[in-house]
Amino acid sequence: MAGKEIALDIIVRSTEIDVNGHVNNAKYLEYLEWGREEWYEQHDLHYDKFEAMGVNTVTVNININYKHECLQGDKLTIKTRPEKIGRTSYVLKQEIWNQNGVLCADALVTSVAMGIETRKSTEVPAELRGLFGAY
Hints:
- This protein has one domain (6-132): Roll (Thiol Ester Dehydrase, Chain A), CATH 3.10.129.
- 21% of the residues lie in helices and 38% in strands.
- It is built from 3 helices and 5 strands.
- It has helices at 25-42, 47-53, 126-129; strands at residues 6-11, 55-66, 75-85, 89-97, 103-115.
- The N and C termini lie close together (12 Å).
- The mean pLDDT is 96.
- It holds the Pfam family 4HBT_2.
- Keywords: Hydrolase.
- Belongs to the 4-hydroxybenzoyl-CoA thioesterase family.
């Protein structure tokens, strides 16, 4: 069964604003992380499940495009969906949309499956691989 797109809604808070009066670029990465965590949770891939499989996932690359500024009080939706999978790595596509339907950022996030004991890359577990459908 292929994984579905998961959406997480958040509101921009004052502590996320920089001296330019908009969301600091580093906060977008945090928003994306929250979206990925929600994606895993909604697909029943909690940390303890990965631990039982002897695997961790490690983010190794984030390619982000900043498209539109976000402001304090904006209601944002972080969308996460499976994009591509290899033997030991996989890519999630993520988008951040504001309440007006404007795409604020998009990103391709590459992660690697890592053996907990070996601390080396290992095959993506079947439970995760199955979420990528035809890829």
